[in-house]
Amino acid sequence: MSRRPSGAVPREPEASGRLDAASLAALVELAHDAVLVRDSQNGIVFWNRGAEVLYGWSETEALGRCPHELLATRFPCPLAEIERQLVLGGGWEGQLRHRTKAGDEIVVESRWESRFDGTGELVGVMEVNRDVTARVAAEHELAAEAARFRALFAASLDAILLTAPDGRILAANPAAEAMFGRSEDEIVAGGRDLLVDSSDPRLAVALREREKTGRVRADLRMLRRDGTPFEAEVSSLVFVDSAGEGRTSMMLHDVTERTRALEAARESEARFQALADAAFEAIVIHDGGQILSVNRAACALFGYTEAELKAMNVHDLVAPGEAKRVEAIVEAGGGEPYETMGVGAGGVPLEIEVSSRSISFQGRPARVAAIHDVAERRRARQALEEQNERLRELDALKSQFVALVSHELRTPLTSIMAYLEVLERGEAGRLTERQRRYLEAAGRNARRLRRLVDDLLFVARADSGRFVLEYGQVELAPLAEEVVAGLQAAAAAAEVDLHTFAAASPVVEADRDRIAQLLENLVGNALKFTPAGGSVDVRVDTTNGDGLLSVSDTGIGIPEPDRPRVFERFYRGERVAGPTAGAGLGLAIVKEIIEAHEGTITLESEAGRGSTFTVRLPLAG
Question: What DSSP letter does each residue of 242-298 carry, written as one string?
């Protein structure tokens, strides 16, 4: 122990002279706090009942021991500093950590009092220790809770405001700063009126509700820094803080996008309802039981009003004997259409086909069912089949008529052409120039009529299945030259250059006469629609295992709308109006011949620039 420095004033014992030593000892023994006294050698000389209870060591075990060693004391500062304060100030107060006999670490509030002799020598120290372990743990937990709250407050994605009931704002988190476009200082200084649109009638209702119940949740109109209003969902709770002051917390969530989404959903549902009402098929939306929505066609099919259907269960529309089967289909997914028996108003049986899908309707799971009246569809299908059968009969009659008329025309037409040839040769007498011109005109028209009759007969044979091909080895280059040579006179008359170009001479397995016929039709068409001074080129080549024939012209071309239909029978586009008009069978016959030979034909054309027809036929062998 140390001596008190000269001039140091010792702390006077409290209540000195009021109680004798025995009374004081009795009082100390009864104290709940641990009281111990150590001498100048740091040995314990007094250990009260409170110390026994707190630390677990009996008085006998503690006397003579150094308390710092016995209790494994952990000091908040160096022991030398504490001892210096004992000498200079006569005492010390602070928190210590001790270990009990059971090995538990506890926290105590400790108060030390110095005792000096008449010479100023420190002769002892009295310690009074109070267990504050639970209080310190609670303070630590409170501090941790406060730290967690501060972290949540700062990190929350929703805006949080701490307010007073009178509308003052005490704090705002970063999300609130971002939401309103203002700093926390601005928000605190401006108060509630800076952020909330006071003209919103919902504000007064929300404040009354919070005053009445201590909490409220409502959508309110808020204001950004630039005055732009926006909708926010506000949750507010009244509470009392640790100082006993009334406070309110406000959590705000910007629901602008949600509001837009809801409006878009309502618009979408309105559009869906409009489309559903315009549909011919019945549409029923249900949640597996309750009917949620129907269209006009559903009302008409089942014979109920919209209100009546919405008051019904969807199973009320299914025949009792079919209910379990339909439920099983729906539970399995119900993706494929299925037929069942429905029930209309008054118990009227309905044959229906149902297609069902899962959807989201008004924010909840639902199913949409498209329902067809099978009986009506069956009647419509039967009527359509009857019409088709009638059309087939008419088409057959037409083919028969064309074949009959063509055959009946061909015989007298052949006779007419023979007599015209006799007259042209002068066998019936010498002709004047005028008579010769008349006969030539009659001959041209007769030959034109003969070609038309031949085309009609070809079509009739193709339709009746009597179109027979006589296959043989056909070399395309010589055939093309032969056809072009036969049409040179027509080309000269039209003042059009006609040429053949053969890069190869492919051999195909084909009917030579029919291939010649298709080439004559293509070249004849090209000459017909190429103005004087133009040209028509016939090219022969091989490509990718096919023989190739192409006919190109510099004529008027084929307009885009006409191209998909040029191979249809009797189709004549705008370009063929006037003197070049024909029956519209030439290209149709070309297509029939090519398909019979398992070949293909393609068309490339540009209006005003000409056209190219390309035929591909499989090579022989």
Answer: TTS-EEEEEEEEE-HHHHHHHHHHHHHHHHHHHHHHH-SSEEEEESSSBEEEE-HHH
Domain membership flag for residue 3: no
Q: The pTM is what?
A: 0.36
Same domain (yes/no): 450, 478: no
Q: Which domain holds residue 73?
A: 21-132
pLDDT at 582: 58
In tens, the pLDDT along 327-363 reads 777 777 656 788 888 888 988 888 888 888 888 887 7
**pLDDT confidence band for 91 (50 / 70 / 90):** very high
The answer to the question of residue 609 being in a domain is yes
Residue 95's DSSP bridge partners are: 109
State the virtual CA torsion across 324, 373, 274, 264 in degrees, nearest 10.
Answer: 30
23, pLDDT greater than 70: no
**What's the CA gap between 317 and 326, in Å, rounded?**
11
Q: Token pair 């670490």 is at which residue?
A: 105
Q: How far is 51 from 34, CA to CA, in rounded Å?
A: 4
Chain CA centroid to CA 78, Å? 69
**404: CB partners within 8 A, 6+ apart:** none
Q: How far is CA 130 from CA 90, 92, 578, in A?
A: 20, 14, 123
The answer to whether residues 537 and 501 touch, using CB atoms and an 8 Å cutoff, is yes
DSSP class per residue in 206-242: HHHHHHHHSEEEEEEEEE-TTS-EEEEEEEEEEEE-T
Quick one: tokens of 444?
A: 């041209």
Q: CA 558, CA 603: separation in Å to the nearest integer? A: 10
How far is CA 354 from each of CA 284, 299, 365, 399, 440, rounded to the nearest angstrom? 10, 16, 19, 43, 72
Tokens of 564: 């998909």
- Domain assignment present for residue 558? The answer is yes
* Domain assignment of residue 311, yes or no: no
Locate 517 and state its tokens.
């016929």
**Distance (Å, rounded) from C-alpha 147 to C-alpha 149?**
5
What's the start-to-end Cα distance of the chain, in Å?
Answer: 127
Ranked by mean pLDDT, the top range of 188-192, 274-278, 497-501 is: 497-501
Query: Which of 254, 272, 290 is a domain's end point?
Result: 254
Amino acid 511 reads: D
CATH number at residue 92: 3.30.450.20
**Beta bridge partners of residue 36, listed in sequence order:** 47, 127
Cβ pair 282, 297 in contact under 8 A? yes
Backbone φ, ψ for residue 548 (5° rounding): -125, 130
d(CA 97, CA 267): 70
Q: Are residues 606 and 489 both part of a single domain?
A: yes
Q: Look at residue 401 in the predicted model and tell me its pLDDT.
A: 56
